[in-house]
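User: what does the whole thing look like in 3D?
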Amino acid sequence: MQGTPWSRLIATIALFGLTATAATGQELPVEHAVLVAPPSVPPAITRTEPAKVIVDVEVKEYTARLADGVEYVFWGFGGTVPGPFIRVREGDQVEFHLKNHPDNKLPHNIDLHAVTGPGGGAASSFTAPGHSSTFSFQVLNPGVYVYHCATAPVGMHIANGMYGLIQVVPKEGLPPVDREYYVMQGEFYTEGRYGDEGLQPFALEKALAENPDYVVFNGSVGALVGDNSIRADVGEVVRLYVGNGGPNLVSSFHVIGEIFDTVWAEGGSQMNRNVQTTLVPAGGATVVEFKVEVPGTLILVDHSIFRTFNKGSLGMLAVSGDEQPAIYSGKQDDSVYLPEGQVTLTASTPDPPAALTKAERMLQGERIYNQTCFACHQANGQGIPAVFPPLVQSDYLIADIDRAISGVIYGQQGEMMVNGQKYNGLMTPQTLKDAEIANVMTFVLNSWGNTGDTITPDRVARVRKNGPLDNAFQQ
Amino acid sequence: MLIGAGGADPAGAEPGAPPPGMVRVDAGTYTPMFDVEGAQEIPAFYLDERPVTNREYLEFVTAVPEWRRSRVPPLFADEGYLAGWVSDLEPGGAPNAPVVTVSWFASRAYCEWVGKRLPTLAEWERTAVASETEPDGRELPAFHQRILDWYGQPTPSTLAEVKSTFRNYWGAWDMHGLVWEWVADFNTALVTGESRGDAGLDRGLFCGSGSVGAADFRDYAAFMRYAFRSSLQGRYTVRNLGFRGARDVVPEEQGGK
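Assistant: Here's the predicted 3D structure for the full assembly of 732 residues, as structure tokens:
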């Protein structure tokens, strides 16, 4: 050894000086920001004077469900996608602590669009795994702003879920509403196609081509449906904070069955009234408010609509309360309409390998159900009264299984009675292979309390050969 | 086994052959991700065929007590230094797993102790762009995807042993897929030494400027390595950050294979 090693090293230290943390503290009351997971938002701010607000956010790289049977390694602020909703008041001094979990592989940082300053805090918050950074800023402009990771390669950090919203409440406060929720769209690029099972890695080429496999609200397919639906009561005013992390797509945000009474255009201070669909740019946000007048399920969608029915951008707002027939009557009359001409629908390509057991058919059938049937017939086969007929304990279904199989193959329309309720809807033919139909029918006939047979691909093939029934879908 | 423990000159067994446990990387060029000056000439050099292991690092701290966990000054290693070790002389991981949670200072001291040095960023990157069969595999989409897949995987609770990933064109193992590695000049990508350099952080790696300044904006794997390195300081330790040693090839050996 050549003496103590320290003397040789001291000279090098100057190159690696510790980053000084700038703090511009006035004498302000100090409080810790309340951070809650989406779709909830923190409680309203009631104070009328500025404060110093301490925000603690930990970055985690974690494996979680992207869709049924599909996992993904998310990178998330606070361990959720989107990250926690941060709420501060105009004029507040924010002291931000960004913690990068020691098990993480990568450095991360945060660029908050609510920050006035270079990089929105990106350079000041740049943090190696197992370390934390602190920086401070004053929030000067009220509004709703996106935050995101800005570490190279930025697109990949955002594509893996590193985004969220920060609200700067104006000094004069906000009009009170009955319900507030937090919804954020983002798209995911996976090596496999939509629905391909297993842990799906990020696919760089698809991201560069801006061609995602998944477009979702709140980080996964179905994050806001079924038991996870957001809810309200008839007569209440709902305020949705709607962000879009991107990384690439612009959202055409729409709520099926509602009109936005008010839209804070682009999340700013301009109020727009009576809007059907509002654009939410990547890296942008908006706020929509509406009074829910009638009971039922309102559907949140990206009205770039193939994303909704094929890539996952569908959420639900369940509204309970008494019917309001003066506002919405429900179906009042139906009659047969049969134009000339009938299309012949042919099924295609070879079937996938047959499932071997009933349990396997059930498993595969459930996935198909959740991709194909779920949006109308709902998570537990309950349907939507008077709109989409139920599949659970359905007398119509049980009475004639082959008729139901034919309905899947050739579509179905016209009046039907299900459990005493009249329906007159329309189901388009489903482009599923015989084995897939056998599996999904087996799943339906043996789920949610239904008990029935195993449907085989041979039986589906026989029904297909018989051709469309009178009630088949017609163009 | 390590060569030249205690700082002796570790000459190779036969002239021109790499020292034991090292591979020779021929002279060539390397274009940094963020350098307006373009390609650099890199003389031939020797590089450890795999990262330094826990067993080897134990020999080091056994022989050089200043670098034991209980004695290292905070100036040279943060509180995470060898945090997974049971005690000063008992590694926490498998003997043949790569040593991690070592600072840049510690890595450099180890290399000096065995008569080596840390590779430069250019040397490391030149070696790392090799696939199994090509000195530069970057044109192969599968090459990038494999690296990105590793970056996208959760960190395992226990690290695999060295030589568990793949051996590249130069004979070097584990350049991707096992641990990050220190290089001698890990943060020079952002320290430019000129007045413009004050804005180097923005210019180099954040937001839009990250792609404007890049030599190859599609090389996301390199982006991630540069970003990782620039998040570090010399005293930092990270749970999946190790290192390997390098040596110059003396001039009379520079001629090529």
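In plain terms: Confidence is low (pLDDT under 50) at residues 1-13, 190-213 of chain B. DSSP finds seven helices and seven strands in chain B.
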